[in-house]
Amino acid sequence: MARWGAANSVSTEVPKPERVPGLTNIVHVARSCALDNDGKIWCWGTGPLLRSTVRGYTTVGASAPVQIAVPAATRMDVEYALNSSRAAPAAVGCAVAVSGNVYCWGSNASGQAGDDTYDYALTPVKVKGLPGPASVVRTSTYTTCALLTTGKVYCWGDNPNGELGNGTIQDPTLVPVQVLLPE
């Protein structure tokens, strides 16, 4: 019998992969999130759960999946930065709804939720200013980007090293700006 995770033991057995029915996407950082066939997002572990504390924002863990209240989604991404230079860890999640709208929740200290505020998104907020439907969203510690169905890319949030791709550095934005891709 193989044991994984027991102190001072190493197994040479490799577990056999199993298909989990009903899941179409899974993301794992410090928080794990899964997208099911019905477009529902479920998250567990440490990361962007929708809670705050009196002394500031905190990310609260869950040992069992908790549903994130986003309209039916087709794609999702989450990011969690424990060793942040900011006052609070940056934990943000984003999803592309069936409609093509993008919704984000969690940390927004850099405007990475895209709702034209720096307010912590206790519930998923619709990204403001995307000129069309998205097909993919990716979020990092302080910046989020969406690939539109037109093939154009839009980013928002912090921009210390040119992450927005719009020709500027250290010029953040609270709403999406188009990445200047060569034609």
Automatic annotation (TrEMBL):
Classification via InterPro entries: Ran_GTPase-activating, RCC1/BLIP-II, Reg_chr_condens
One GO CC term on file: cytoplasm
Superkingdom of the organism of origin: Bacteria
Record-linked PROSITE patterns: RCC1_3
GO molecular function: guanyl-nucleotide exchange factor activity
Cited Pfam families: RCC1_2 (PF13540)
Coiled coil location: none
Stretch forming the signal peptide: none
Gene3D superfamilies membership: Regulator of chromosome condensation 1/beta-lactamase-inhibitor protein II
Protein name in UniProt: BNR repeat domain protein
Species annotation: Labilithrix luteola
